[in-house]
Design brief:
Length: 155
């Protein structure tokens, strides 16, 4: 496979807007509205969040974001690989990149919220391969029967 180009993204390009719209539409299709915690473009454009996009041969293939929760704790947000590119290591590359960036920023813990249904099992397995384990709600989250929370410490 051609190299994956992961770059910091200012969320201004039409490709990323379209990708995030498809991602949000899908989240609302598979999760009750009150349990969708995916962020739109405006919510991602805040100083506490760094957003990366992944490109192969000039085409957008995925994205991921890191939210600084303070106190050395970061949250993975907006992790997504375009459907036709799944299974090619893009998600692994994005998560590895985010972990490296979190370490470089001095973070000591990463956490995330994903879904509870079968649709989200591949994401849960990806995070487990990186050492994430199930945990309770963190940050501003409360208990939600549709959410699955995971965390890991960083060396």
């Amino acid at each position: 496979m051609t190299a994956i180009d992961i770059r910091t993204d200012d969320l201004r390009g039409p490709e990323i807007a379209a990708l995030l719209t498809r991602h949000l539409d899908h989240m609302f299709a598979v999760t009750p509205a009150g349990s969708v915690y995916a962020l739109d473009l405006d919510a991602l454009r805040v100083p506490a969040i760094t957003f990366w996009s992944a490109w192969i041969d000039g085409g957008l293939v995925g994205c991921i974001a890191l939210k600084d929760l303070g106190g050395g704790h970061g949250e993975i947000k907006s992790a997504h690989t375009v459907e036709q590119m799944r299974g090619r290591g893009i998600g692994r590359a994005l998560v590895a990149h985010l972990i490296d960036q979190a370490r470089a920023r001095g973070m000591t813990r990463l956490s995330l919220e994903t879904g509870q249904t079968d649709h989200f099992r591949p994401a849960q397995e990806l995070y487990r391969r990186f050492g994430f384990v199930e945990c309770g709600p963190f940050g501003d989250y409360g208990p939600d029967p549709h959410s699955y929370f995971m965390t890991r410490t960083l060396d």
